[in-house]
Amino acid sequence: MNTQKAVTTCIENDKNQIIRIRKCSEPIDKVKLIYNVLEYKYAPFIRKKSVVNKNEFRENSPIDSLSVSSP
To answer: Fewest Cβ atoms closer than 10 Å to its Cβ: which of 34, 43, 66, 70?
Structure first.
């Protein structure tokens, strides 16, 4: 089931903050069938969005460990 991926996209906004969006790809039909039998969700998490000040941002830091502010 290595066909399903999690992708993180980062961009800087005009307030010198980093916007990070993390999303899972859609599984292929065969994987969906297995997930349905096992009663698993198609994605291990819903889309996550975080906004952090640029000085707090580290490229490899986990998205959940950053302090998040409202956009």
So the answer is: 70
Domain coverage including residue 36: 6-57
Write the secondary structure of the chain as one string of H (helix), E (strand) and C (coil).
CCCCCEEEEEEECCCCEEEEEEEECCCCHHHHHHHHHHCCCCCCCCCEEEEEEHHHCCCCCCHHHCCCCCC
Give a yes or no: residue 1 inside a domain. no
Q: Enumerate residues 6+ apart whose C-beta is below 8 A from 56.
A: 66, 67
pLDDT tens, 26-63? 888 998 999 999 998 887 777 777 777 766 655 555 54
pLDDT value, residue 8: 87
